[in-house]
Amino acid sequence: MTGVHLTAPSVASTAPPTSRMAEPATGGRFGDHGGRFVPESLVAACAEVERTFREAWSDATFRQRLDRLRTVYAGRPTALTPAPNLSAELGLTVLLKREDLTHTGSHKINNVLGQALLAHRMGRTRLLAETGAGQHGVAAATAAALLGLDATVFMGERDMERQELNVFRMTMLGAQVIPVRSGSRTLKDACNEVLRHWVATVDDAYYCAGSVMGPHPYPWMVREFQRVIGEEARAQCAAELPAAVPTHVVACVGGGSNAAGTFAGFVDTDAQLVGVEAAGGAAMTDGAVGVVHGYRSRVLQDADGQVAEAHSIAPGLDYPGVGPEHAHLGDIRRARYVTVTDDEVVAALRRLARTEGILCALESAHAIAWVLRAAGTAELPSGSTVLITVSGRGDKDMPALMAAGR
Amino acid sequence: MSGQLATALRTAPAPRLVPYVTGGITANWTDYLLAYQDSGADAVEVGLPFSDPMLDGATLQQASDRALARGTRLDGVLADLAAVRDRLTVPVVVMTYANPVVRLGVVEFCRRLAEAGASGLIVPDVPVDELGSLESVAAVAGIDLVLLAAPSTSAGRLREICARSRGFVYAVSTMGVTGERTALDDGALTLASRAREASDLPVLLGFGVSTPAQAARACRAADGVVVASALMRKVLEGAGPDRLARIVADFRAAMDRAA
Ligand SMILES: Cc1ncc(COP(=O)(O)O)c(C=O)c1O
Fold first, then answer.
1. Which pTM does this prediction carry?
2. Could you state, in order of their start, the residue ranges of all structural domains in chain A?
3. Which family does the record assign (chain B) (predicted)?
4. By CB atoms within 10 Å of each CB, which of A206, B5, B92, B247 scores lowest?
5. Which of A286, A299, A274 lies closest to A366, judged by CA?
6. Ligand 1: nearest atom to the Cα of A213
7. With helix as H, strand as E and coil as C, how does A334-371 read?
8. A13-69+108-218 and A75-106+227-403 share one fold
9. ipTM of this predicted complex?
10. Which of A106, A295, A339 to mutate to test the pocket of ligand 1 (most atoms within 8 A of CB)?
11. Which of B74, B102, B207 to mutate to test the interface with A (most CBs of A within 10 A)?
12. Nearest CB to A307: which of B51, B149, B150?
């Protein structure tokens, strides 16, 4: 017994270092990570979500409804766009998976359509969501409007000031936005507050987590709802690339949902999987093992276990934790996690805009920034084929960039 | 099977009263513990301040924030506790969240608690399914690991929680976070009765027990109460140990009258 484990190490941690990104082990374990660290009063609610998800996911009617919404509402499949100009400049073959082209402008819609249908199936009338940048909040408000559900979105007071436009969008969509004034008044505090609220409303409200975080089954379920990114991209790469599979698959990591969805399509190939974190919010690089928001994973924290605040120019990456499956993929070295700085990110956003005419979100620009830095080095040799997930569009970030004089 | 906490609570002659204080809330915070003891507490609960107290309402969040803003560290809280252990005859139960336990390591954390003289531990975001090594490590260190039951807990789970809890069974009175309430939920008494049937240990109701009258009512079904937010609100307002001693004495008197 090492003493650093709160739970006995699971069987998966001694298994060979592979991951198919399939179902987690019993109790929602990804190696030593994951689990369901919630108060007793939320255990039954989480178990009900798990049960309903399992049923729905093997129910052809549910899958058809979701597929149809993805097509006629969200605008899927999204394009795989070759980036010829950037490719020529970098000596690489760069392909962009265009989640920025979805309805509401980011991959978050993939997740909320799935969860909103699930809430509906469970007879819940209200979606609860936390949001940092506001992208998940907007997506949740959108799905709620579509399916006739109420939406209550918890948002740190400081984030509300930084993301006024998205607050207004949520209100336009009929959602109630609740300012969170506790702690650091940012995303991590909104995550606490939504769980506090859910404890008291489990009978009529459904908690709609915004990333591959939270108690079991959320990390697994959200990855399954995002898997569509990787599956589409896999088929599109097969049509686009002589080798069918890229040598590198790159995505930004906040909680890690767009990366998890993308990686799921390529985990069984030889492609190198690279997750890019913000230097000021790099739980994979700088975090220690801990428990927050219902799951065990890497967390930015001090020596006493007080959770630290993250700092990134991209509000969607301002999160001190990271999805437990990423911690596991890192442990077994199936994926690598790297960081880029705010300055590199702004330069990358501008470079993609000018070379390809694509104005991506600051979050997505993290993935671009790493490719720009690594191109032509041993990490990413000339001639590599690189799939980058563009998780969202940049419109939301223009006011902040203008204000910062960038 | 159990330590000092279990013995003290099992042999208490009257309804058990366990008042709470946030460690490090003021420089003299351990004086509150002594005041509680003098006013008839059967045990005292010490909350370790935490950055992300997800099961706490506004009052205990504020108490935690204030303690952290004073620069309170785990080391300091434990040193303060160790310094009063000779004068504290009632057992000390520590309440913390999972993250600090994992960060220090389960073995080290329990060892340090025991060293400071604590005899019980409550970790509200570690449900019975996630106990892992904590259960045996705490037992070896002589720490009674207290488990929580909620109104939503099924009969099967309640049996398991009661069988594996040590010291007492903590019955959470409401589907919600900590904080004062105008009335005790009916569900609270139902849960306490269910837990009592399933357990040999004392069953204490907590979360939102706000007034002496509510505490007295709680004791119709439970073996006692944990009182936190109602006391910490006073502390946050600036009330000192003497004032808190009188408030706890009022709880004690109301509970004894009802018994
Ligand atoms: C455009 C965009 N990309 C990425 C993220 C980060 O989330 P995740 O790591 O779950 O994909 C966000 C979160 O708000 C986002 O809005």
1. 0.96
2. 13-69+108-218, 75-106+227-403
3. Belongs to the TrpA family.
4. B247
5. A274
6. 10
7. CEEEEEECHHHHHHHHHHHHHHHCCCECHHHHHHHHHH
8. yes
9. 0.97
10. A106
11. B102
12. B51
